[in-house]
Amino acid sequence: MPVPKIAPSMLSSDFANLAGEAKRMVEAGADYLHMDVMDGHFVPNLTLGAPIIKCLRKHTNAFLDCHLMVSNPEQWVDDYAKAGASMYTFHIEATANAAALIAKVRATGMKVGIAVKPKTAIESVFDYANDVDMILIMTVEPGFGGQAFMNDCLPKVRALRQKFPNLDIQVDGGLANDTIERATEAGANVIVAGTSIFSAPSPKDTIQHFRDCVLRNVTNK
Question: Is the pTM of this model over 0.85?
């Protein structure tokens, strides 16, 4: 059965102290560090790129979960592999040949994931689910942190969990104490959260709470 994987979104960290923030999250119990990569084209925001991943990798052995919200994701595979990315998650909407891109990512040794925007049908990724390590269901429109959780994305999580019971299913967007139960009850086991972890009085307690929800609603269901 899928195990809990809690991935603080480094988009909510202090970028001036990225190495220290990464260490703080790992010590708080993070399984992954979620790296939001935005190109200002596929989504209306611009964030970190491969050079920052490369610099951060020098300071941590953590699993760097890179979510590429970019046009032409094929262009950046080698750069992120060389930078030390652990997983390369691309958007199904951004590629014309998902199968070829999956193979290209696999060839570098990185794990591979596919992301789905809120308005994209979940059926669009069914054919690839057995060939990837994870599928990411966006529970907000990609591009900015701090948005409200979209409940109408949860049927996608349920459909995916029912069809692929052992798949890692990630949710990203608006995950907090008041939404984690809904997300995990639908079947999500990989939890991305930014504001709710970084602004918590105790990030460790928040991460543990999220982990407990996955254990109760997914792993031990």
Answer: yes
